[in-house]
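B., you asked whether I could sanity-check this one before it goes into the benchmark set. Here's the sequence:
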Amino acid sequence: MLRQQLNDALKAAMLGKDARSVSTIRLILAALKDRDIAARPKGLPDGIGEDEIRQMLQSMIKQRRESITLYQQGNRPELAQQEADEIVIIEKFLPRQMSDDEIAAAVKAAIVGAGATGLKDMGKVMTILKDGHAGQMDFTKASAAVKKELGG
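And here's what the prediction gave me:
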């Protein structure tokens, strides 16, 4: 479904002559193709699944946010804006992102679900969060919330 959405969006962007969307969606499709090729030896001839695609999109957004920071530090506002525009385009393919309050509630539920008692259990909690909220949650924020809850 997500693959079809990407292909349809590419066609629409090409017809609408939206150069930024075309280039961004092509970047997404190229990254997806790379991951699909890497997945073939692992027994996935049809490529990666929807959750992995969402995680890939999340990592692309994270990379762009880091780039924005660097471009702003380097006094390159035009490049920072380009990255921000790409984030908006990529986010169209992800489900609505969880708010900070929703993240906190999910973290508390995952801690209970994992039976976590300290920082040594952080991996278990993060696995539960990633399995249940792939593409919906900023895992950097979630990781900080888990550390705080577990007394880190």
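One thing to flag: The mean pLDDT is 90. Otherwise nothing jumped out at me.
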